[in-house]
Amino acid sequence: MLSVRHLSISFTMYDVGLRRKDLMVISDLSLSIEAGEIAAVVGASGSGKSLLAHAVLGILPRNATARGELMFKNEPLTPTRQAALRGREIALIPQSVSFLDPLMRVGAQARRAAQLGGHGSAAAEAQRRAFARYGLASAVERLYPFQVSGGMARRVLTALATVGRADLIIADEPTPGLHPAAVAETLGHLRELADQGRAVMLITHDLEAALEVADKIAVFYAGNTVEVANRADFTSRGAAGLRHPYTRALLCALPQNEFVAVPGAQPPADALPPGCLYAPRCQWATAECRAARPTLRPLTNGYVRCVHAEVLVGRPACNYPSTTRSHTQVSRC
To answer: Is the pLDDT of residue 323 over 50?
Structure first.
């Protein structure tokens, strides 16, 4: 459904003295999503997750330059094709509820989305079905965005994105700030969309949430794809199938895995280290890692950007805590 290969994005900016410069914020992102599949994109803030979504949709700022290969249904995603598909065959569930038009009732916004999605004269009926599907009473359609709660606004955004016939749904951070029950409900809706044959890109900081519904996980770090792994690689005992040290570190930082933290932070785009971008924080780093940036390569039914991946595969990712440990002991970790 979607193929992204070697995507790079730079921004034209002005430095001290009005000197023009190009800042490369994404240097090498690759990802593919099949019909009926949820591919979760995880990583720290600034790793390139939302920029990937905007590049696919063709809504990058004017000072951005994107290079690489973007394919949708085996055809190039040119700017003209992106404009034609946006809101029709490719739909976005945005991160912020501010994407709703504050001057238009939410029902009218959903009907407009239904018309754009191909329902034509049946747009009103499609809107009512979508609202009912996501637990929105008929009275909600007459409300303005400021009159609905945050959780309700997120359900409206989901209804707007799915009311049409889009084959690719991009969900950009759909769960932050939601009650656990609402998170489960939102993830369940995305799973249903995939089970209906649509492709879903789930962008999230929440690895635990991603593992609830995703078929595979793409891990981003400092504008690079460092690993693409199947969900089973994370959930099997010890997660020994994981290939990249950063992916393993993310897993070990989860509460149930002792909150193990890695020193340091993701480098900013204007201060990237030579060689492997994760090397300054990696316990496995060698001179080879610092000499050249590794390429993304296939390994054991996944992809990895690490020269030591073969050594890591088969080793437990982290030491799992005993279920008998007290809350105090875990907090101290």
So the answer is: no
Total-model pTM: 0.86
Question: Band of the pLDDT at 320, cuts 50, 70, 90?
Answer: very low
CA distance 35 to 21: 40
- How deeply is 229 buried, as exposed, middle or buried, from its count of CB atoms within 10 A (0-12, 13-18, 19+)? buried
CB 329 within 8 A of CB 319: no
Q: Which amino acid is at 67?
A: R
Does 266 fall in a domain?
yes
Distance of CA 286 to the CA centre of its chain: 30
pLDDT at 82 over 60: yes
CB 226 within 8 A of CB 180: no
CATH of the domain at 192: 3.40.50.300
Q: Report yes or no: 259 and 333 within 8 Å, Cβ to Cβ.
A: yes
